[in-house]
Amino acid sequence: MIELPNQNDISTRLQSTKNFSASDSKNPRVTSTSESVVLLEGHTTEFKPLKYVMLAGGIGGSTADFLMHSVDTVKTRLQGQKPAKPPKYQNMLHTYATIFKQEGIAHGLYGGIAPAMLGSVPATIIYFGTYEFVKRKMIGLRIGIPEPVVHLTAGSIGDIMASAVYVPSEVLKTRLQLQGRYNNPHFVSGYNYKNTWHAAQMIRKLEGTGAFYHGYKATLLRDVPFSALQFAFYERFKLWAMMLENSNILSLEWEIATGALAGGLAGALTTPLDVMKTLLQTQKRPSTTKAAKQSSTVPSNTPKLTHHYYSGIWEGMLWNYKNQGIGGLFRGIGPRVAWTGMQSGIMFAIYEQVLELLEKFEKKNNKIHQDNNNNNKNFEIIRGIK
Length: 386
Fold this sequence. Notes:
- The structure is a single chain.
- The protein has 15 helices and 3 strands.
- By secondary structure, the protein is mainly α.
- It has a single domain (48-297, 306-385), classed as Mitochondrial carrier domain (Mitochondrial carrier fold).
- It has a 3-stranded antiparallel sheet with strand order 1-2-3, with no helix packed on it.
- β2 and β3 form a beta hairpin.
- The protein is elongated, with a radius of gyration of 25 Å.
- The N and C termini lie far apart (71 Å).
- Mean pLDDT is 79; it is low at 10-37 and 291-305.
- It is a multi-pass membrane protein.
- Solcar repeats lie at residues 48-137, 146-240, 250-357.
- It is found in: Membrane.
- InterPro entries: MCP_dom_sf, MCP_transmembrane.
């Protein structure tokens, strides 16, 4: 079992580090020594070029989202199913097996992957770029802002900036996940979308453009604290890992572990908000129910279930708690923790690896450029001598 270092251990091990004092260990702060180097509780790290951060973040985030999409589908099905006894989907493994058997991979477990990727790539680029930009600006103030405040603030602002891109794609993704390969009768959703483009057209026609931002407040209420906690936990766990390894560079195993732990913990804490986000984005307005039914293929023998229209986040959480207990608020916590944990582990590991590769590539190019300049200078000198 790995024992995490306490604050006294960190202070002792960093006494020889430049610009680190005992007071810093008691009151963790981020300080700036230049535009490219910071001291994180006495541990030296370097700022990478912002364009590299954005590129690495986009690659890491979208790759992780693609690889973990099936787990997200399982989580969405568990959260989106209507109250029934017995429920169609009972747990994570049962849901996986049921979807795979009945609907397959492409249209079942990976339903909604197209809008997911269309939103993931630009959103993660914006998110990582904004996070790093805000973090550097706050550190650049040189007023000793506490480290957790820096990461929480930067993570929150980053998610708010990216939300304009990923929320519409989240609506499309979630509906296609619930629809599955067929017009899933268990959800009585009335969805009968042929593909992503058809889904976008039908939503705009029947519900208006504003429907693409259904659950926007709920999504922000889930993702802003999640992103803030995720980055705050990751930066903290990464620092602890560096202390344990006594190195500024972590192994791939440590990068995956710290990212997974940060994402899983943040995901667990924000599960009730994720449940409400799913329910708000997939419910239909009463005025559009009739039109939706006319375009659906729900079998006539589908059992009728009692529905509740959620007017808002807090009303929905209260209704779920009263009618389904604490379990109603934490539906799908297993696959959510699995998804956020594994997704974060993969994302941060790829992010760090890509950053390292880009840095090596830049150094190699700089060396080649410098060698060429030296050769040109030597050639000019030789010509001058002749």
